[in-house]
Design brief:
CATH topology: Methylamine Dehydrogenase, Chain H
Strand content: 35-45%
CATH superfamily: YVTN repeat-like/Quinoprotein amine dehydrogenase
Number of helices: 0
CATH class: Mainly Beta
Number of strands: 37
Oligomer: single chain
Number of domains: 1
Protein backbone atom coordinates (compact mmCIF):
# COMPACT_ATOMS: atom_id res chain seq x y z
CA UNK A 1 0.00 0.00 0.00
CA UNK A 2 1.73 3.09 -1.22
CA UNK A 3 0.40 6.46 -0.54
CA UNK A 4 0.95 9.71 1.21
CA UNK A 5 -0.85 12.12 3.39
CA UNK A 6 -2.80 15.19 2.38
CA UNK A 7 -2.11 17.29 -0.70
CA UNK A 8 -2.10 20.52 1.29
CA UNK A 9 1.48 21.69 1.55
CA UNK A 10 2.42 22.42 5.16
CA UNK A 11 6.10 23.32 5.50
CA UNK A 12 7.37 24.02 9.01
CA UNK A 13 10.88 25.25 9.67
CA UNK A 14 12.80 24.96 12.91
CA UNK A 15 14.57 28.08 14.16
CA UNK A 16 18.35 28.16 13.70
CA UNK A 17 18.71 28.23 17.47
CA UNK A 18 17.48 24.64 17.57
CA UNK A 19 21.08 23.64 17.04
CA UNK A 20 20.64 21.21 14.17
CA UNK A 21 24.02 20.06 12.91
CA UNK A 22 24.32 20.42 9.14
CA UNK A 23 25.72 17.14 7.93
CA UNK A 24 25.10 14.99 4.89
CA UNK A 25 24.92 11.68 6.71
CA UNK A 26 23.54 11.20 10.20
CA UNK A 27 23.95 7.78 11.74
CA UNK A 28 23.16 6.41 15.14
CA UNK A 29 26.04 5.97 17.56
CA UNK A 30 24.62 2.71 18.82
CA UNK A 31 23.14 -0.01 16.66
CA UNK A 32 20.69 -0.98 19.35
CA UNK A 33 18.86 2.36 19.35
CA UNK A 34 15.33 2.02 17.96
CA UNK A 35 15.59 4.91 15.48
CA UNK A 36 18.28 6.03 13.04
CA UNK A 37 18.45 8.88 10.59
CA UNK A 38 19.39 7.31 7.26
CA UNK A 39 19.76 10.57 5.35
CA UNK A 40 19.17 14.26 6.02
CA UNK A 41 18.17 16.34 2.99
CA UNK A 42 19.15 19.85 2.10
CA UNK A 43 22.87 19.83 2.89
CA UNK A 44 24.30 23.23 1.87
CA UNK A 45 25.88 23.74 -1.52
CA UNK A 46 24.90 20.53 -3.32
CA UNK A 47 21.45 21.33 -4.74
CA UNK A 48 19.87 18.56 -2.71
CA UNK A 49 16.16 17.89 -2.44
CA UNK A 50 14.00 19.25 0.36
CA UNK A 51 10.77 18.13 2.08
CA UNK A 52 10.25 14.43 1.35
CA UNK A 53 6.50 13.93 1.62
CA UNK A 54 5.94 10.40 0.46
CA UNK A 55 6.67 6.71 0.66
CA UNK A 56 9.88 4.87 -0.14
CA UNK A 57 10.32 1.90 -2.45
CA UNK A 58 13.18 -0.64 -2.39
CA UNK A 59 14.81 -2.51 -5.26
CA UNK A 60 16.14 -6.06 -5.03
CA UNK A 61 19.61 -4.81 -4.03
CA UNK A 62 18.38 -2.84 -1.03
CA UNK A 63 18.57 0.59 -2.64
CA UNK A 64 15.74 2.92 -1.71
CA UNK A 65 14.00 5.44 -3.99
CA UNK A 66 11.79 8.44 -3.35
CA UNK A 67 10.92 12.03 -4.19
CA UNK A 68 11.15 15.43 -2.54
CA UNK A 69 8.59 18.17 -2.98
CA UNK A 70 11.14 20.97 -3.30
CA UNK A 71 14.85 21.52 -3.71
CA UNK A 72 17.25 20.58 -6.46
CA UNK A 73 18.85 23.07 -8.82
CA UNK A 74 15.48 24.46 -9.91
CA UNK A 75 13.71 24.27 -6.54
CA UNK A 76 11.02 22.05 -8.06
CA UNK A 77 11.90 18.76 -6.38
CA UNK A 78 13.96 15.69 -7.21
CA UNK A 79 13.81 11.92 -7.62
CA UNK A 80 16.55 10.30 -5.53
CA UNK A 81 18.18 6.96 -4.80
CA UNK A 82 19.84 6.04 -1.51
CA UNK A 83 22.38 3.20 -1.57
CA UNK A 84 23.70 1.45 1.57
CA UNK A 85 27.49 1.64 1.87
CA UNK A 86 27.82 -1.24 4.31
CA UNK A 87 29.13 0.88 7.18
CA UNK A 88 25.83 2.28 8.40
CA UNK A 89 25.92 5.19 5.98
CA UNK A 90 23.95 5.74 2.79
CA UNK A 91 24.94 7.57 -0.41
CA UNK A 92 22.45 9.66 -2.35
CA UNK A 93 22.19 9.78 -6.14
CA UNK A 94 19.87 12.33 -7.76
CA UNK A 95 18.09 10.57 -10.63
CA UNK A 96 16.17 13.60 -11.87
CA UNK A 97 15.89 17.27 -10.98
CA UNK A 98 12.52 18.74 -11.88
CA UNK A 99 12.47 22.15 -13.55
CA UNK A 100 8.79 22.85 -12.92
CA UNK A 101 8.39 23.41 -16.65
CA UNK A 102 7.67 20.85 -19.38
CA UNK A 103 9.00 17.96 -17.27
CA UNK A 104 6.67 18.74 -14.38
CA UNK A 105 7.67 19.38 -10.80
CA UNK A 106 6.75 19.47 -7.12
CA UNK A 107 6.00 15.75 -6.67
CA UNK A 108 3.54 15.15 -3.84
CA UNK A 109 3.71 11.39 -4.41
CA UNK A 110 6.12 8.49 -4.24
CA UNK A 111 7.22 5.98 -6.87
CA UNK A 112 6.29 2.52 -8.08
CA UNK A 113 8.46 -0.06 -9.91
CA UNK A 114 7.33 -2.20 -12.83
CA UNK A 115 8.64 -5.72 -13.43
CA UNK A 116 11.63 -4.58 -15.51
CA UNK A 117 12.87 -1.84 -13.18
CA UNK A 118 11.21 1.28 -14.58
CA UNK A 119 9.97 3.83 -12.05
CA UNK A 120 6.67 5.69 -12.40
CA UNK A 121 5.53 8.79 -10.57
CA UNK A 122 3.69 12.09 -10.80
CA UNK A 123 4.58 15.76 -10.68
CA UNK A 124 1.90 17.87 -9.01
CA UNK A 125 2.49 20.89 -11.23
CA UNK A 126 4.26 21.77 -14.45
CA UNK A 127 3.99 19.96 -17.75
CA UNK A 128 2.45 21.26 -20.97
CA UNK A 129 -0.50 22.86 -19.17
CA UNK A 130 1.06 23.56 -15.79
CA UNK A 131 -1.33 21.10 -14.12
CA UNK A 132 0.95 18.13 -13.55
CA UNK A 133 2.37 15.07 -15.30
CA UNK A 134 2.80 11.32 -15.07
CA UNK A 135 6.43 10.36 -15.71
CA UNK A 136 8.64 7.33 -16.21
CA UNK A 137 12.30 6.88 -15.26
CA UNK A 138 14.07 4.04 -17.08
CA UNK A 139 17.49 2.71 -16.03
CA UNK A 140 20.20 3.08 -18.68
CA UNK A 141 23.78 1.87 -18.94
CA UNK A 142 24.69 5.24 -17.47
CA UNK A 143 22.06 7.10 -15.49
CA UNK A 144 18.30 7.15 -15.93
CA UNK A 145 16.15 8.35 -18.85
CA UNK A 146 13.24 10.63 -17.93
CA UNK A 147 10.07 10.67 -20.02
CA UNK A 148 6.72 12.41 -19.55
CA UNK A 149 3.94 9.90 -20.25
CA UNK A 150 0.97 12.22 -19.82
CA UNK A 151 0.21 15.92 -19.37
CA UNK A 152 -2.95 16.76 -17.45
CA UNK A 153 -5.53 19.18 -18.85
CA UNK A 154 -5.58 22.96 -18.95
CA UNK A 155 -6.31 25.00 -15.82
CA UNK A 156 -8.77 25.82 -14.36
CA UNK A 157 -11.89 24.27 -15.94
CA UNK A 158 -10.68 21.10 -17.62
CA UNK A 159 -12.80 17.95 -17.75
CA UNK A 160 -9.50 16.21 -17.12
CA UNK A 161 -8.05 16.09 -13.64
CA UNK A 162 -5.18 18.25 -12.48
CA UNK A 163 -2.82 18.23 -9.54
CA UNK A 164 -1.89 14.51 -9.39
CA UNK A 165 -1.11 13.94 -5.74
CA UNK A 166 -0.81 10.24 -4.98
CA UNK A 167 1.51 7.32 -5.56
CA UNK A 168 0.45 5.35 -8.62
CA UNK A 169 -0.79 1.75 -8.57
CA UNK A 170 0.33 -0.66 -11.30
CA UNK A 171 -1.82 -3.65 -12.26
CA UNK A 172 -0.63 -6.93 -13.80
CA UNK A 173 -1.38 -5.66 -17.32
CA UNK A 174 0.86 -2.62 -16.90
CA UNK A 175 -1.94 -0.08 -16.43
CA UNK A 176 -1.38 2.79 -14.00
CA UNK A 177 -4.06 4.15 -11.68
CA UNK A 178 -3.99 7.33 -9.63
CA UNK A 179 -5.89 10.38 -8.39
CA UNK A 180 -5.84 14.11 -8.95
CA UNK A 181 -6.71 16.52 -6.17
CA UNK A 182 -8.81 18.77 -8.41
CA UNK A 183 -10.28 18.87 -11.90
CA UNK A 184 -13.12 16.96 -13.49
CA UNK A 185 -15.51 19.96 -13.77
CA UNK A 186 -17.86 18.77 -11.08
CA UNK A 187 -18.17 21.69 -8.73
CA UNK A 188 -15.72 22.59 -5.94
CA UNK A 189 -14.70 25.68 -7.99
CA UNK A 190 -11.83 23.92 -9.79
CA UNK A 191 -13.32 20.44 -9.79
CA UNK A 192 -13.61 17.97 -6.92
CA UNK A 193 -10.86 15.65 -8.13
CA UNK A 194 -10.65 12.52 -10.24
CA UNK A 195 -9.52 8.91 -10.47
CA UNK A 196 -7.68 8.13 -13.70
CA UNK A 197 -6.12 5.22 -15.58
CA UNK A 198 -3.14 5.31 -17.96
CA UNK A 199 -2.77 2.37 -20.33
CA UNK A 200 0.12 1.58 -22.69
CA UNK A 201 -0.85 1.59 -26.38
CA UNK A 202 0.34 -0.65 -29.21
CA UNK A 203 2.21 2.32 -30.71
CA UNK A 204 4.33 2.77 -27.59
CA UNK A 205 2.42 5.72 -26.14
CA UNK A 206 -0.01 6.01 -23.26
CA UNK A 207 -3.74 6.71 -23.21
CA UNK A 208 -5.60 8.26 -20.29
CA UNK A 209 -9.12 7.34 -19.21
CA UNK A 210 -11.05 9.34 -16.64
CA UNK A 211 -12.52 6.65 -14.36
CA UNK A 212 -14.43 8.92 -12.00
CA UNK A 213 -14.93 12.63 -11.44
CA UNK A 214 -16.05 13.35 -7.89
CA UNK A 215 -19.21 15.41 -7.52
CA UNK A 216 -20.11 18.21 -5.12
CA UNK A 217 -23.60 16.78 -4.66
CA UNK A 218 -23.76 16.16 -0.92
CA UNK A 219 -23.14 12.42 -1.10
CA UNK A 220 -20.09 11.82 -3.28
CA UNK A 221 -16.61 12.56 -2.03
CA UNK A 222 -14.49 15.62 -2.71
CA UNK A 223 -10.73 16.11 -2.96
CA UNK A 224 -9.05 12.68 -2.97
CA UNK A 225 -5.62 12.80 -1.35
CA UNK A 226 -4.64 9.20 -0.71
CA UNK A 227 -4.64 7.48 -4.08
CA UNK A 228 -6.24 4.12 -4.81
CA UNK A 229 -5.58 0.53 -3.78
CA UNK A 230 -6.13 -2.38 -6.17
CA UNK A 231 -8.43 -5.16 -4.95
CA UNK A 232 -8.13 -8.85 -5.77
CA UNK A 233 -10.78 -8.66 -8.51
CA UNK A 234 -9.48 -5.50 -10.16
CA UNK A 235 -11.67 -3.13 -8.17
CA UNK A 236 -10.24 0.10 -6.75
CA UNK A 237 -10.62 1.48 -3.22
CA UNK A 238 -9.80 4.96 -1.98
CA UNK A 239 -10.81 7.87 0.23
CA UNK A 240 -11.59 11.54 -0.12
CA UNK A 241 -10.78 13.97 2.66
CA UNK A 242 -14.04 15.89 2.23
CA UNK A 243 -17.53 15.26 0.89
CA UNK A 244 -20.21 12.81 1.87
CA UNK A 245 -23.37 13.69 3.74
CA UNK A 246 -21.50 15.26 6.66
CA UNK A 247 -18.62 16.74 4.66
CA UNK A 248 -16.14 14.57 6.59
CA UNK A 249 -15.00 12.39 3.70
CA UNK A 250 -15.83 9.00 2.24
CA UNK A 251 -14.39 5.55 1.56
CA UNK A 252 -15.29 4.45 -1.98
CA UNK A 253 -15.07 1.46 -4.30
CA UNK A 254 -14.80 1.64 -8.10
CA UNK A 255 -15.72 -1.47 -10.08
CA UNK A 256 -15.40 -1.95 -13.82
CA UNK A 257 -18.62 -2.96 -15.60
CA UNK A 258 -18.25 -4.73 -18.94
CA UNK A 259 -21.92 -4.10 -19.71
CA UNK A 260 -21.51 -0.33 -19.55
CA UNK A 261 -17.81 -0.29 -20.49
CA UNK A 262 -17.24 2.01 -17.55
CA UNK A 263 -16.57 2.20 -13.83
CA UNK A 264 -19.26 2.26 -11.15
CA UNK A 265 -18.72 3.96 -7.79
CA UNK A 266 -19.99 2.48 -4.53
CA UNK A 267 -19.92 4.53 -1.32
CA UNK A 268 -18.45 2.05 1.14
CA UNK A 269 -18.54 4.42 4.12
CA UNK A 270 -19.39 8.06 4.73
CA UNK A 271 -17.40 9.39 7.67
CA UNK A 272 -19.33 11.51 10.15
CA UNK A 273 -16.74 12.26 12.84
CA UNK A 274 -17.67 12.68 16.46
CA UNK A 275 -16.57 10.18 19.10
CA UNK A 276 -17.84 7.09 17.29
CA UNK A 277 -16.40 7.59 13.81
CA UNK A 278 -13.38 9.07 12.12
CA UNK A 279 -13.32 12.15 9.91
CA UNK A 280 -11.22 13.60 7.10
CA UNK A 281 -9.24 10.59 5.82
CA UNK A 282 -6.13 11.84 4.03
CA UNK A 283 -4.60 8.49 3.09
CA UNK A 284 -5.63 5.47 1.10
CA UNK A 285 -6.45 2.04 2.48
CA UNK A 286 -4.59 -1.21 3.04
CA UNK A 287 -6.31 -4.42 1.94
CA UNK A 288 -5.67 -7.70 3.77
CA UNK A 289 -7.82 -10.84 3.65
CA UNK A 290 -10.72 -8.83 2.29
CA UNK A 291 -10.57 -6.26 5.10
CA UNK A 292 -9.81 -2.57 4.52
CA UNK A 293 -7.62 -0.70 7.00
CA UNK A 294 -6.95 3.02 7.11
CA UNK A 295 -6.59 6.20 9.14
CA UNK A 296 -8.50 9.42 9.61
CA UNK A 297 -6.98 12.76 10.51
CA UNK A 298 -9.82 13.62 12.88
CA UNK A 299 -12.68 12.11 14.81
CA UNK A 300 -12.64 9.26 17.30
CA UNK A 301 -12.98 9.27 21.07
CA UNK A 302 -10.58 12.17 21.54
CA UNK A 303 -11.10 13.99 18.25
CA UNK A 304 -7.49 13.44 17.17
CA UNK A 305 -7.87 10.75 14.54
CA UNK A 306 -8.37 7.02 14.24
CA UNK A 307 -7.24 3.70 12.84
CA UNK A 308 -10.26 1.96 11.30
CA UNK A 309 -11.22 -1.37 9.78
CA UNK A 310 -13.95 -1.88 7.17
CA UNK A 311 -15.38 -5.32 6.44
CA UNK A 312 -18.08 -6.67 4.14
CA UNK A 313 -20.65 -9.42 4.56
CA UNK A 314 -23.70 -10.32 2.50
CA UNK A 315 -25.97 -9.89 5.52
CA UNK A 316 -24.74 -6.54 6.86
CA UNK A 317 -22.97 -4.97 3.90
CA UNK A 318 -20.00 -2.74 4.68
CA UNK A 319 -19.26 -2.09 8.37
CA UNK A 320 -16.58 0.34 9.58
CA UNK A 321 -15.14 -0.03 13.09
CA UNK A 322 -12.65 2.15 14.98
CA UNK A 323 -9.70 0.03 16.10
CA UNK A 324 -7.89 2.85 17.90
CA UNK A 325 -8.51 6.51 18.74
CA UNK A 326 -5.45 8.75 19.00
CA UNK A 327 -4.74 11.38 21.62
CA UNK A 328 -5.10 9.16 24.67
CA UNK A 329 -4.71 10.81 28.06
CA UNK A 330 -1.31 9.30 28.72
CA UNK A 331 1.68 11.41 27.75
CA UNK A 332 3.30 10.65 24.44
CA UNK A 333 0.46 9.46 22.21
CA UNK A 334 0.40 10.74 18.66
CA UNK A 335 -2.36 12.76 17.06
CA UNK A 336 -3.48 13.47 13.50
CA UNK A 337 -2.44 10.46 11.38
CA UNK A 338 -2.26 11.64 7.78
CA UNK A 339 -0.48 8.62 6.26
CA UNK A 340 -1.74 5.15 5.52
CA UNK A 341 -0.85 1.84 7.15
CA UNK A 342 1.56 -1.05 6.61
CA UNK A 343 1.00 -4.60 7.91
CA UNK A 344 3.61 -7.17 8.94
CA UNK A 345 3.25 -10.94 8.55
CA UNK A 346 1.72 -11.20 12.03
CA UNK A 347 -1.12 -8.81 11.26
CA UNK A 348 0.27 -5.83 13.19
CA UNK A 349 -0.41 -2.41 11.70
CA UNK A 350 2.21 0.36 11.50
CA UNK A 351 1.88 4.03 10.68
CA UNK A 352 2.75 7.59 11.63
CA UNK A 353 1.06 10.57 13.22
CA UNK A 354 1.99 14.01 11.99
CA UNK A 355 1.77 15.57 15.46
CA UNK A 356 1.88 14.50 19.09
CA UNK A 357 4.33 12.18 20.79
CA UNK A 358 6.64 12.69 23.74
CA UNK A 359 7.71 16.07 22.35
CA UNK A 360 4.09 17.12 21.69
CA UNK A 361 4.56 18.67 18.29
CA UNK A 362 6.78 16.46 16.16
CA UNK A 363 4.87 13.24 15.49
CA UNK A 364 5.27 9.52 16.08
CA UNK A 365 5.74 6.10 14.54
CA UNK A 366 3.20 3.68 16.00
CA UNK A 367 2.15 0.04 16.04
CA UNK A 368 -1.43 -1.17 16.53
CA UNK A 369 -1.80 -4.84 17.53
CA UNK A 370 -4.73 -7.18 18.03
CA UNK A 371 -4.86 -9.16 21.27
CA UNK A 372 -6.21 -12.67 21.74
CA UNK A 373 -9.51 -11.26 23.04
CA UNK A 374 -10.02 -9.28 19.83
CA UNK A 375 -9.22 -5.79 21.16
CA UNK A 376 -6.58 -3.54 19.61
CA UNK A 377 -3.90 -1.55 21.44
CA UNK A 378 -1.26 0.94 20.38
CA UNK A 379 2.48 1.12 21.03
CA UNK A 380 4.46 4.27 20.22
CA UNK A 381 7.66 2.99 18.59
CA UNK A 382 9.29 6.39 18.21
CA UNK A 383 8.55 10.01 19.09
CA UNK A 384 10.28 12.48 16.79
CA UNK A 385 12.19 15.22 18.56
CA UNK A 386 13.03 17.63 15.71
CA UNK A 387 16.64 17.00 14.68
CA UNK A 388 15.78 13.36 13.88
CA UNK A 389 12.79 14.51 11.81
CA UNK A 390 9.30 15.77 12.38
CA UNK A 391 5.91 16.03 10.69
CA UNK A 392 5.95 12.59 9.02
CA UNK A 393 3.38 12.28 6.23
CA UNK A 394 4.40 9.05 4.48
CA UNK A 395 3.35 5.45 4.88
CA UNK A 396 6.20 3.36 6.31
CA UNK A 397 7.85 0.47 4.44
CA UNK A 398 9.06 -2.76 6.08
CA UNK A 399 12.50 -3.97 4.94
CA UNK A 400 14.83 -6.44 6.68
CA UNK A 401 13.35 -5.97 10.14
CA UNK A 402 13.15 -2.19 10.00
CA UNK A 403 10.47 0.35 9.26
CA UNK A 404 11.66 2.96 6.75
CA UNK A 405 9.94 6.25 6.16
CA UNK A 406 10.31 9.95 5.53
CA UNK A 407 9.70 12.94 7.76
CA UNK A 408 8.89 16.06 5.78
CA UNK A 409 10.97 18.27 8.05
CA UNK A 410 13.77 18.04 10.60
CA UNK A 411 17.40 17.16 10.06
CA UNK A 412 18.73 20.20 8.20
CA UNK A 413 15.23 21.72 8.48
CA UNK A 414 14.38 20.08 5.15
CA UNK A 415 13.42 16.51 6.01
CA UNK A 416 14.94 13.09 6.56
CA UNK A 417 14.75 9.42 5.67
CA UNK A 418 14.64 7.38 8.88
CA UNK A 419 14.50 3.79 10.06
CA UNK A 420 12.83 2.42 13.19
CA UNK A 421 13.44 -1.10 14.48
CA UNK A 422 10.46 -3.45 14.44
CA UNK A 423 9.41 -4.80 17.84
Amino acid sequence: MLNCGGFKMKIIKLPNSFGVVLVLFLVSLAHGLPEKTVYAFGAPGIGDGMYPYCNLVFDAKGNVYGTTLDGGTYNAGIVYKLSPLGNGQWAETVLHEFTGQSDGGYPFAGLVFDSVGNLYGTGGYGGANGTGVVFELSPQVSGWAYNVLYNFGAYPQSSDGFGPNSTLVLDKLGNLFGTTYEGGISGCFQGCGTVFELSPTDSGGWKEQLIHAFQANGTDGELPTGGVTLGSNGELYGTTQNGGTSGSGILYQLTYSSSTNGWIETLVHQFVGGTTDGSFPEAGVLIHAGHLYGTTDGGGTNGHGTVFETTFSKTTGWITTILYSFGQSYSGDGISPQAGLTMDNKGNLYGTTSYGGAYNYYGTVFKVSKSTNGTWSETVLHSFSGPDGFYPLAVVTIHNGWLYGTASNGGNNTGVVYQVHLI
